[in-house]
Automatic annotation (TrEMBL):
<dbReference type="GO" id="GO:0051539">
    <property type="term" value="F:4 iron, 4 sulfur cluster binding"/>
</dbReference>
<keyword id="KW-0227">DNA damage</keyword>
<dbReference type="Pfam" id="PF14815">
    <property type="entry name" value="NUDIX_4"/>
</dbReference>
<dbReference type="GO" id="GO:0046872">
    <property type="term" value="F:metal ion binding"/>
</dbReference>
<dbReference type="InterPro" id="IPR011257">
    <property type="entry name" value="DNA_glycosylase"/>
</dbReference>
<dbReference type="InterPro" id="IPR015797">
    <property type="entry name" value="NUDIX_hydrolase-like_dom_sf"/>
</dbReference>
<dbReference type="GO" id="GO:0006284">
    <property type="term" value="P:base-excision repair"/>
</dbReference>
<keyword id="KW-0479">Metal-binding</keyword>
<keyword id="KW-0408">Iron</keyword>
<dbReference type="InterPro" id="IPR003265">
    <property type="entry name" value="HhH-GPD_domain"/>
</dbReference>
<keyword id="KW-0326">Glycosidase</keyword>
<dbReference type="InterPro" id="IPR004036">
    <property type="entry name" value="Endonuclease-III-like_CS2"/>
</dbReference>
<dbReference type="InterPro" id="IPR044298">
    <property type="entry name" value="MIG/MutY"/>
</dbReference>
<keyword id="KW-0004">4Fe-4S</keyword>
<comment type="function">
    <text>Adenine glycosylase active on G-A mispairs.</text>
</comment>
<dbReference type="Pfam" id="PF00730">
    <property type="entry name" value="HhH-GPD"/>
</dbReference>
<dbReference type="InterPro" id="IPR029119">
    <property type="entry name" value="MutY_C"/>
</dbReference>
Length: 340
């Protein structure tokens, strides 16, 4: 009761809470899986304005969908959402099903997202356990088990379900998420502001800041990437990435992963395109960090006469780069002011 009272008094007024339809909750939860709320809000508002329901999402051209998602990363989330939207239109008349199992069966919807949609949109008694909630419960119970292990996550999910009031599953789940996001913070919990501090065993034991327990992170693989920023009167040279793997189907300046190339090396790499490039200057080094790897970027800027390009390549004018071609933010350092 104290947690819910705190939630109604202190919750953030977010657009998907003001209109908590199943679709809006779904879009927001998928976006927030890897993105902070403040950063995700402009993307959310633009996304639902252009794609207001599952039918619009299902019909969206894939490149336009990737463009709407540009900057959020983890683009397979958007692709899975579109697959799920098409199934929702085919099997459920265009509305997300009010059933946890049916939600869980849709592409890209895991246990947490299914629980969030089911409880918040439909009032179904289903837990929604994310990293914030795991942290809260590890501290509440002074539990130093490894929260990355599936068995531990299942046990904590059971604890959440045991504590969940039958008449307010959605607000309870949201309150736990909000508590983890605003008060029960990683490394530095604001225990003095916590509505359940008196119940917290981790705080009583003086261990709250050290919980939860996780294994040490693995060192990320570092890869050199050489970028060729080639422009002609027809625009900037872009290439489409492969249909599978990292940043699948996105467009990028010509780039060569795992290779550190000088101008002569770039000439050889670009020779199949028939380009005669005049190299103008070296690009400053840049870095982009992914979940499991780090790109160490370098390269050259050059100009070339426009030539017809094979499939998978294009010349892009500035307005096309800003509005049409989805380009990953990994290259933002080399494309300032171009819509990235």
């Amino acid at each position: 009761e104290g947690l819910l009272t705190w939630f109604w008094q202190h919750r953030r007024l977010l657009p998907f809470r003001q209109e908590p339809s199943a679709y809006h909750i779904w879009v927001s939860e998928i976006m927030l899986q890897q993105t902070r709320v403040a950063a995700a809000l402009p993307y959310y508002e633009r996304f639902v304005a252009e794609l207001p329901d599952p039918a619009a999402l299902a019909a969206c051209p894939p490149d336009r969908l990737r463009k709407l998602w540009q900057g959020l990363g983890y683009y397979n989330r958007a692709a899975n959402m579109q697959k799920a939207a098409r199934l929702v239109c085919e099997q459920y008349g265009g509305s997300l099903p009010a059933d946890w199992q049916a939600l869980r069966a849709l592409p890209g919807i895991g246990e947490y997202t299914a629980g969030a949609i089911a409880s918040i949109a439909f009032g179904i008694r289903a837990p929604a356990v994310d990293g914030n909630v795991l942290r809260v419960f590890a501290r509440l119970y002074n539990d130093d088990a490894d929260i990355t292990k599936p068995a531990v996550r299942r046990r904590f999910t059971g604890l959440v379900l045991d504590e969940m009031p039958p008449d307010a599953p959605g607000p309870f789940n949201e309150a736990l998420m909000e508590l983890g996001a605003l008060v029960c913070l990683p490394g530095a919990p604001a225990c003095a502001s916590c509505p359940v501090a008196a119940l917290c065993r981790g705080r009583a034991a003086g261990r709250a800041a050290r919980l939860p327990c996780k294994p040490p992170r693995k060192e990320k693989q570092r890869l050199p990437v050489t970028v060729a920023l080639v422009e002609s009167e027809a625009g900037l040279l872009l290439q489409r990435r492969p249909a599978k793997g990292l940043l699948a189907n996105l467009w990028q300046p010509a780039a060569f992963e795992g290779r550190s190339l000088d101008c002569a090396g770039l000439d050889a790499a670009l020779a199949p395109l028939g380009l005669q490039v005049e190299w103008l200057r070296a690009l400053p080094p840049a870095r982009h960090v992914f979940t499991h790897r780090i790109w160490e970027l370098s390269g050259w800027q050059g100009k070339a006469p426009a030539v017809p390009l094979p499939a998978g390549y294009a010349w892009a004018q500035p307005d096309e780069l800003a509005e049409r071609y989805p380009v990953p933010s990994a290259f933002a350092a080399y494309l300032p002011g171009r819509g990235l």
